[in-house]
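Usage

Read records sequentially. Each one opens with the input sequence:
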Amino acid sequence: MNGRLVTSTIVETLGREGAVKVDALYKTVHRLHSDVEKGAFEETLMALEVQGLIRVYNMTRGQRRVELVRG
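and closes with the structure output:
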Protein backbone atom coordinates (compact mmCIF):
# COMPACT_ATOMS: atom_id res chain seq x y z
CA MET A 1 0.00 0.00 0.00
CA ASN A 2 1.30 3.41 -0.94
CA GLY A 3 0.09 5.87 1.71
CA ARG A 4 0.66 8.91 -0.47
CA LEU A 5 -1.54 7.52 -3.22
CA VAL A 6 -4.30 6.73 -0.73
CA THR A 7 -4.06 10.21 0.76
CA SER A 8 -4.21 11.90 -2.62
CA THR A 9 -7.15 9.70 -3.65
CA ILE A 10 -9.05 10.73 -0.51
CA VAL A 11 -8.37 14.44 -1.04
CA GLU A 12 -9.20 14.31 -4.76
CA THR A 13 -12.44 12.41 -4.13
CA LEU A 14 -13.56 14.86 -1.46
CA GLY A 15 -12.66 17.80 -3.67
CA ARG A 16 -14.72 16.37 -6.49
CA GLU A 17 -17.73 15.05 -4.56
CA GLY A 18 -17.86 17.28 -1.47
CA ALA A 19 -18.99 15.68 1.78
CA VAL A 20 -19.43 11.89 1.66
CA LYS A 21 -20.02 9.09 4.13
CA VAL A 22 -16.87 7.37 5.35
CA ASP A 23 -18.07 3.97 4.12
CA ALA A 24 -18.68 5.30 0.60
CA LEU A 25 -15.26 6.96 0.61
CA TYR A 26 -13.64 3.70 1.70
CA LYS A 27 -15.35 1.83 -1.15
CA THR A 28 -14.03 4.38 -3.64
CA VAL A 29 -10.49 4.18 -2.26
CA HIS A 30 -10.63 0.37 -2.06
CA ARG A 31 -11.79 0.17 -5.68
CA LEU A 32 -8.67 2.07 -6.79
CA HIS A 33 -6.24 0.62 -4.24
CA SER A 34 -7.39 -2.92 -3.52
CA ASP A 35 -4.60 -3.57 -1.02
CA VAL A 36 -5.69 -0.87 1.45
CA GLU A 37 -7.27 -2.26 4.61
CA LYS A 38 -9.95 -0.56 6.68
CA GLY A 39 -7.56 0.06 9.60
CA ALA A 40 -4.96 1.77 7.42
CA PHE A 41 -7.72 3.83 5.78
CA GLU A 42 -8.98 4.97 9.21
CA GLU A 43 -5.44 5.90 10.26
CA THR A 44 -5.04 7.97 7.10
CA LEU A 45 -8.32 9.76 7.82
CA MET A 46 -7.17 10.49 11.36
CA ALA A 47 -3.84 11.86 10.14
CA LEU A 48 -5.59 14.10 7.59
CA GLU A 49 -7.94 15.34 10.30
CA VAL A 50 -5.06 16.12 12.67
CA GLN A 51 -3.34 18.02 9.85
CA GLY A 52 -6.51 20.07 9.41
CA LEU A 53 -7.18 18.96 5.82
CA ILE A 54 -10.48 17.20 6.49
CA ARG A 55 -13.26 17.14 9.07
CA VAL A 56 -15.09 14.01 10.20
CA TYR A 57 -18.58 14.39 11.67
CA ASN A 58 -20.59 11.79 13.56
CA MET A 59 -24.03 11.04 12.17
CA THR A 60 -26.74 8.71 13.41
CA ARG A 61 -26.23 5.00 14.10
CA GLY A 62 -22.46 4.96 13.95
CA GLN A 63 -22.20 6.56 10.53
CA ARG A 64 -19.74 9.33 9.85
CA ARG A 65 -19.46 12.02 7.21
CA VAL A 66 -16.17 13.45 5.98
CA GLU A 67 -15.54 16.67 4.12
CA LEU A 68 -12.58 18.63 2.84
CA VAL A 69 -11.75 21.81 4.79
CA ARG A 70 -12.05 24.87 2.58
CA GLY A 71 -10.07 28.02 2.95
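Summary fields computed downstream for this record:
- Helices lie at 3-17, 22-32, 38-50.
- The radius of gyration is 11 Å.
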